[in-house]
Structure formats: C-alpha cells, structure tokens
C-alpha cells in the first residue's frame, strides 16, 4: 500500500533495523522502544489490523507467531515476554498495518493501560 510506512519498511524505501526476514514476514526493532526488548513482527502483505483477519490468514498468522517465538528465543526472553497487537486508534494503533509487538526485559504490569 503506497502510503503505509510499514509497507515502505518491507520494500526498503524506509530504513529499519531488521532482526528477521523471510518471504512473508519481517521483524524489526521498534524505533521508540518501550521495553529493553521491543521488536515488531509484521506480515509483508498489507493487512490493516487484526480486525481484518479471517480464515484465509491462518498460514501467515502461523508464520508470524513462529517468528515471535524465534525472536524471543534469540533475544533470550522466551521465559517471559508479551505479544501485543493494538487495533484501532482508541486502543493505541498508530500504524494501520498489522503488527505484533514483542516486549520483554522489564516487569510488565497487568492489566495494560
Ligand atoms: P502501534 O502504535 O501499536 O500501531 O505501533 C506502531 C509502532 O511502530 C510504534 O511502537 C512505533 O514506535 C513504531 N514505529 C513507527 N515507525 C517506525 C519505524 N520507521 N521504524 C520502527 N518502528 C516504527
């Protein structure tokens, strides 16, 4: 999608510090981390948010969560991390391209704000 910043990260038009990439998934370090480990895991396909997912996305979702788990292992936080996907502005979504925040490295309170 032409104006989507995460699509531009996928294409390389906007630089990012990538932690992982394959044919359908990219993981990169958040530009404004809110935890010592803060990685974004996104599909290369433009999907606006989790509200737009359906049965047809099963394969890409499987890949996304496999990469989340791989990133947690590689960043030595597999024993304690949080996966967050904000949906809609009222929930804090600022980039309308599906992404999963992998957060770890500090105490994470519950419930989230
Ligand atoms: P959300 O607010 O849940 O939509 O998450 C979007 C995240 O993308 C925020 O944590 C931002 O800090 C992050 N972000 C925005 N632009 C970039 C960028 N160019 N590179 C890396 N992370 C970004």
Describe this structure in words.
The chain is globular. A five-stranded antiparallel beta sheet has the order 1-2-3-5-4, with helices on one face. The chain starts with a helix and ends in a 9-residue tail after the last strand. It is α+β, with helices and mostly antiparallel strands. It contains two helices and five strands; from the N terminus they run αβββαββ. The longest helix has 17 residues, at 58-74. The mean pLDDT is 97. 21% of the residues lie in helices and 21% in strands. The structure holds adenosine monophosphate.
What can be said about this structure in brief?
With 113 residues, this protein is of the alpha+beta class.
- In the predicted model, the low-confidence regions spanning at least 5 consecutive residues are none
**What share of residues is helical?**
10-25%
Strands ordered across the widest β-sheet:
1-2-3-5-4
Chain-averaged pLDDT? 97
Shape: globular
What structural class do helix, strand and pairing data support? alpha+beta
State the total count of DSSP E strands: 5
In DSSP terms (H or I, runs of 4 or more residues), the helix count works out at 2
The fraction of residues in strands falls at: 15-25%
Biggest β-sheet, characterized? Answer: 5 strands, antiparallel
Using only C-alpha atoms, the radius of gyration works out to 13 Å
Ligand types: adenosine monophosphate
SSE pattern, N- to C-terminal: HEEEHEE
Measured between the Cα atoms of the first and last residue, the distance is: 31 Å
